[in-house]
TrEMBL record:
Keywords: Metal-binding, Zinc, Zinc-finger. The lineage of its organism: Eukaryota, Fungi, Dikarya, Basidiomycota, Agaricomycotina. It comes from Trametes pubescens. PANTHER family: FINGER DOMAIN PROTEIN, PUTATIVE (AFU_ORTHOLOGUE AFUA_3G12190)-RELATED, RING ZINC FINGER PROTEIN-RELATED. InterPro entries: Znf_RING, Znf_RING/FYVE/PHD. Residues 194-214 have a biased composition (Basic and acidic residues). PROSITE patterns: ZF_RING_2. This is RING-type domain-containing protein. One of its GO terms (biological process) is protein ubiquitination. Residues 179-221 are annotated as: Disordered.
């Protein structure tokens, strides 16, 4: 079965097209702000879940029958992880953040045990299911995800609509924005008018160039 084609990546031309269309720019800005707000809410939910994970002790591991167990992700002994946490807390500057030290257990019905560092990394990578049994430990927000998908599709439509209009760079980048350029368009009053072209036919720009190369004569001696 053939894989679905990936959407085209947006380029600087897309950005210029959005800039030149105030309506599309305002709509895109509103959609982006909405998606960013939803992303912040999602991150706050992940932070709250990560903070709620318990810190297990040797007694907890013994009660769970995990005294000889290992973390399913990094395969480090759970007791070794507890010893590492104890040593780190006794130091003034532990090697890892305190919230990533030790061992934790996912809530029921899963209940699998992991080191806190690895399960937090798994969580903040966007995963909401147990690495071992694939049971979700955070309820999927179907309505929220659908809304974000709709907003992303709308933003893509706006970008695609803007791409249908050709961009004219001379509207945004006049020749005099680069003061170091010696060649500049002549003043319209000094340019001879070519009446052989139609009123709608584009005319060529004429430049005055400095042909004096005496300043560079020493480079070729």
């Amino acid at each position: 079965m053939a894989a679905e084609p990936r959407p085209r990546r947006r380029s600087m031309t897309d950005a210029f097209n959005i800039i030149r269309d105030p309506g599309a720019a305002a709509a895109a800005r509103g959609d982006l702000m909405s998606m960013l707000e939803r992303n912040r809410e999602r991150e706050a939910q992940l932070d709250a879940f990560a903070a709620s994970l318990p810190k297990l002790t040797e007694r907890d591991l013994a009660a769970l029958g995990q005294s000889d167990g290992n973390c399913p992700i990094c395969l480090t002994s759970l007791l070794a992880l507890l010893s590492e946490e104890e040593m780190a807390l006794a130091m003034d500057s532990p090697a890892h953040p305190v919230e990533e030290l030790g061992v934790t257990q996912l809530p029921p019905p899963c209940g699998h045990v992991f080191c806190r560092k690895d399960i937090r990394g798994w969580l903040y990578q966007g995963n909401t299911t147990c690495p071992t049994c694939r049971r979700p430990f955070i309820a999927p927000g179907s309505d929220e995800d659908a809304s974000v998908s709709r907003e992303a599709a709308l933003l893509d439509d706006l970008l695609s609509g803007a791409l249908a209009r050709p961009i004219r760079f001379d509207e945004h980048f006049p020749f005099d924005v680069f003061p170091g350029m010696q060649g500049r368009p002549r003043d319209s009053a000094q340019q001879p008018v070519d009446d052989s072209r139609g009123p709608d036919e584009p005319r060529e720009a004429h430049f005055d160039y400095d042909d004096d190369r005496s300043a560079y004569s020493g480079m070729y001696s």
